[in-house]
Amino acid sequence: MDEREPDGAERLTGSVESVIYTNEENGYTILDFGTDQNELVTVVGTLPYVAEGDELTVFGKWVHNPKYGRQFQVEQFEKRLPSDEAAILRYLSSGAVKGIGPKKAQKLVELFGEDTFEVIQNHPDWMTQIPGISRRMAEEISAEFARQAGIRTAMMFFRDFFGAALTVRIYKAWGNAAVDMARENPYRLCEEIEGIGFEKADSMAEKLGFDRNGPARVQSGILYVLSYNGALNGHTCLPSERLIEAAAAMLEVTPAEVEEGVDALLRAQKLRRIHVRTEEGERSYLFDRYSYDCERVIADKLVVLDRSCVRIETRDVNHFIAREERSSGIDYAELQKVAIAGALENGVMILTGGPGTGKTTVVRTLMRIFASMDLRVALAAPTGRAAKRMSEATCAETKTVHRLLEMNYSDGKRAQFARNEHNLLEEDVIIVDETSMMDSALMAALLKAIKPGARLVLIGDADQLPSVGAGNVLRDLIACGRFATVKLTEVFRQAQNSLIVTNAHAIDRGEMPRLDVKNNDFFFLPRKTDRDIAFTVADLCRNRLPRSYGAEIVGNIQVISPSRKGEGGTEHLNRLLQETLNPPRPGKREHKVRDLLLREGDRVMQIRNNYDLMWERGEETGCGVFNGDIGIIENISPKDHSVEVLFDDRHVTYDFTGLDELELAYAVTVHKSQGSEYPVVILPLYNAPPMLLTRNLLYTAVTRAQRMVILVGREEIAAEMVRNNRQSMRYTGLCARLTVKGE
What is the pLDDT of residues 275-308, one digit of tens each? Predict the structure, then answer.
């Protein structure tokens, strides 16, 4: 029934009897497949644009599905047009070619026989001999047939380089020109197609015989180095000499060849350069065009906002503050008054401060004052959890920035928003919390949508970790000195009773947190070995905390680790906690994807932005699930090849092929925890990589807790983190831009 291919894959030839299921977005398909040996088998895998009657050669392996038995899992496939009259009739009758149904198919085959496909493709006007087929219809049928021929050509060409799912993505982007465009310059793939990086494009180019020292490769490599440093290190630009050195080393070419590539990219405006004056002299920085434009938009729009708002007179500001003190019974601290005045007197105001310093009080007061002025206020935050927390603190609706901007679709790499410079937000005041989490792309999108004359209040804690995405927006805005900035420092009486708050401020000052106090919200459990640390973390989650505080506390615990690796890292802890908190049992369905076992009831996290993924909230639907969103697996359906996850109040269904976007989230890294708060935080202090054992990482972890922090491990690790005030340096041009604008 099958032949073994040289690479170890098996081969089946036959035709599609029926299509049981197909996902039009990614091509994942389940077929009833009739082999040439007259056996009916189930074939599963990425088989885009396959229809009943198609003749296929499929390559892959046999697998056993626990529920559905033996299946053939496809890795690659070839699609052939049927050649005999009976097969042609069956193929056309299936609806595979839009515009041709069973009756027209019968008449076409009766008239043209085995030449039917030749007529459709090259002589569409001949089809008008058949009653019911007009010239226009014949041309539409021929165009559809040509489109399908293009798909077959693309599948055949790209199969030696990429999987079927990526081929679908290429074809959707480039259409019938895909093969010609890739042959002309395969490096365009890594610039324009999501999921194809430089390495894949470079491998393809090498197989196609491209010069490894040629300009196409060098220029693409330069852009890749910038993109890689943005994704990995958060840079929006690199010093020219550093970029040239890194690109030359990666590409194994000379610096002179890279400089030629840089010049060509500058002429094509794919690279941009700025010059910055420093104490050592002038230094130049290189950006890709997108990062350059984001920072340009941020700088320009902020300056316009700051200059264009109607400023409130000082006497009126004092009146508002006095009125609010009387009505609320609160005597504002001096810096709180300065912050309130700053938001009223300026178009842009930045409010920072650690936990317990009264930022929420300032926001509530501003909301009341703006309401009394008949100004419309929008509250926003970068993540769903941060928005939910702000909503609870202010008793007012808070949207994610993506929702505020009405994200509507994606171009494959970046979000697109209905609210933009052509469709401005109506609100008069925008207040954004957790601004430290906003990268330059999201901040630029927000600023494009704010109308001139509106006010912008940015709230954040600059001592926390910077955004996951490229940029250092909050710190740059503070450092430039261009905008009114207030840092609240006084810890208020009610917060002074919390050791979480006082220890967080101690860490921020470079002092050791108090670990010897028998307190009900901050605990330290000393453990010597990494294995003991991991065991204690699991025991706390499974036994000790539920015994002391009730079983319901389990859902409120979040383990936060400095790193992914090691026995105290998230990868090991997630496997351990999954078996501890959600062990297998009869009736609880599972699905394994690569090395990841998912089980109903598991806590999972979305690990990259997916702007196209649909969600449902009651009758409401929308798009977009984002990096860091945490949910619970509610259902695994082998029949539908799907996993349903509940993210807070949003239901999201993943196809099995999309599960590489999920990972277990019983334990998350400190970076992934940004913008979230949890009732209980457990932090393992173990031998993580030294570059991760920093003060701001410890500070960020501790400030994620609402009611309880438990440190587990070695006190000397905590001391090392407090001493290590190293902050990852990010190359950006925003501060320099704003400093020049302020001169």
Answer: 988 777 789 999 999 999 999 999 999 999 999 9
In the predicted structure, residue 139 carries a pLDDT above the cut 60: yes
Q: Which residues contact 334 (CB under 8 A, 6 or more apart)?
A: none
Over residues 168-182, mean pLDDT: 89
Q: Cα–Cα distance between 541 and 467 in angstroms, integer?
A: 29
* Cα 182–chain centre separation: 27
Architecture of domain 499-723: 3-Layer(aba) Sandwich (3.40)
Closest CA to 356 of 703, 708, 718: 703
3-state secondary structure of 101: coil
Nearest CA to 659 out of 725, 606, 721, 719 is that of 606
For the chain, how far is it from start to end, CA to CA, in angstroms? 78
Angle, CA of 604, 572 and 641, to the nearest 5°: 35
pLDDT at 523: 94
Q: Residue 601 contacts by C-beta under 8 Å, 6 or more apart in sequence?
A: 582, 588, 632, 633
Residue spans in the chain of domains classed CATH 3.40.50.300: 295-492+732-738, 499-723
The predicted structure's pLDDT at residue 127: 92
Q: What is the pLDDT of residue 413?
A: 65
Helix 570-581 and helix 530-539: axis angle, to 10°?
Answer: 40
Task: Select the highest-mean-pLDDT range: 70-74, 352-356, 567-571.
Answer: 567-571
Q: Phi, psi (5° rounding) for residue 665?
A: -135, 25
By the 8 A CB rule, do 387 and 398 touch? yes
Longest alpha-carbon distance in the chain: 93
The Cα 339–Cα 350 span in angstroms is 8
State if pTM tops 0.85: no
Inter-residue contact 52 to 69 (CB < 8 Å): no
φ/ψ of residue 20, rounded to 5: -80, -40
pLDDT digit string (tens) for 229-282? Answer: 988 889 999 999 999 999 999 999 999 999 999 999 999 999 999 998 877 778
Higher local confidence (pLDDT), 2 or 476: 476
Q: Which segments within 511-629 are labelled E, that is strand?
A: 522-526, 557-561, 590-593, 596-599, 603-606, 610-617, 620-625
- The count of C-alpha atoms lying within 13 angstroms of the C-alpha of 256, restricted to the half-sphere facing its C-beta, is 0
Say how many C-beta atoms besides its own lie within 10 A of residue 24's C-beta. Answer: 10
**Other CB atoms closer than 10 Å to residue 282's CB: what's the count?**
8
Q: What does 323-380 look like in DSSP terms, one character per residue?
A: HHHHHH-----HHHHHHHHHHHH-SEEEEEE-TTSSHHHHHHHHHHHHHHTT--EEEE
Instruction: State the amino acid at position 250 in one-letter form.
Output: M
CA dist 365 and 234 (Å) reads 35
**Structure-token pair, residue 17:** 């009897």
Helix intervals (H) in 113-252? 116-122, 135-158, 164-174, 178-184, 188-192, 198-207, 215-233, 240-251
Second-level CATH architecture of 295-492+732-738: 3-Layer(aba) Sandwich (3.40)
Question: Which residues of the chain form CATH 1.10.10.2220?
Answer: 166-290
Burial of 640 (0-12, 13-18, 19+ CB in 10 A): middle
Q: Is the Cα dihedral 318, 320, 326, 329 positive or negative?
A: negative
Q: Give residue-wise pLDDT tens across range 429-454.
A: 999 999 999 999 999 999 999 999 99
Angstrom distances, CA of residue 386 to CA of 234, 435, 449, 674, 678: 21, 10, 21, 9, 11
For residue 361, count CB atoms less than 10 angstroms from its CB and return exposed for 0-12, middle for 13-18, buried for 19 or more: buried
Which pair of tokens denotes residue 39?
């056996």
pLDDT of residue 638: 85
Question: How far is CA 36 from each of CA 5, 33, 78, rounded to the nearest angstrom?
Answer: 17, 10, 15
Tokens for 429?
């005041």
Read off the tokens for 364: 């509530």
Topology (CATH level 3) of domain 166-290: Arc Repressor Mutant, subunit A (1.10.10)
